[in-house]
Specification:
By secondary structure, the chain is α+β, with helices and mostly antiparallel strands. The strands form 3 sheets. The chain has a 5-stranded antiparallel β-sheet with strand order 6-5-4-8-7. Strands 1-2-3 form a 3-stranded antiparallel β-sheet, with no helix packed on it. Strands 9-10-11 form a 3-stranded antiparallel β-sheet, with no helix packed on it. The chain is built from 2 helices and 11 strands, in the order E-E-E-E-E-E-H-E-E-E-E-E-H.
Amino acid sequence: MSTNNTISKSEFVVYGKGKNEEAINISNVFYISRPDKYVIFHMENNIFKHSGTLVEFEEILPDNFFRIHREYIVNMEYVACIYKTYLKLVNGIEIPISRMHREQIQEFITQHAR
């Protein structure tokens, strides 16, 4: 039996096998990383590992999720401060910004400024 994934713009649901079935509300995800073979969804008090690539998720995540590094996608709703080489989330986690993504982040901020 293979793993079946269902993803929408408002909610992210991963169906596993049997007892491993999981559902994640995407709005609760602070950031997503892929330090090794697993994509890791980081929430306030929990993490969820899923096999796959960041590119798979980057293409289908809501617009408030932004790729800032080859290993990180960030939910911009949880960003407290943006510096030149990293950003800080509301929970104090610092995530590096790659040189390649700095200009894109500035454009994102300009487009979404209130």
